[in-house]
């Protein structure tokens, strides 16, 4: 004879909290993509993002050499 089914209470999640969590996860995924792209894990050359950030530093007047 099977055991009777138990009901499990699932806590309610507010839509605002869910949106913030999804936005945070999305931003972290974009950041991981950019870092992987820069390090050559995604692109063949791996230098496009590095050069873009390098030029951006120069445009902001930050010395990097």
Automatic annotation (TrEMBL):
InterPro entries documented for this protein: CbtB_put
Where are the membrane-spanning stretches?
17-37
Instruction: Give the UniProt keywords, A-Z.
Output: Membrane, Transmembrane, Transmembrane helix
A Pfam family reported for this protein in Swiss-Prot or TrEMBL: CbtB
Q: What name has this protein been given in UniProt?
A: CbtB-domain containing protein
Species in which this protein is naturally found: Kribbella italica
Lineage of the species this protein comes from? Bacteria, Bacillati, Actinomycetota, Actinomycetes, Propionibacteriales
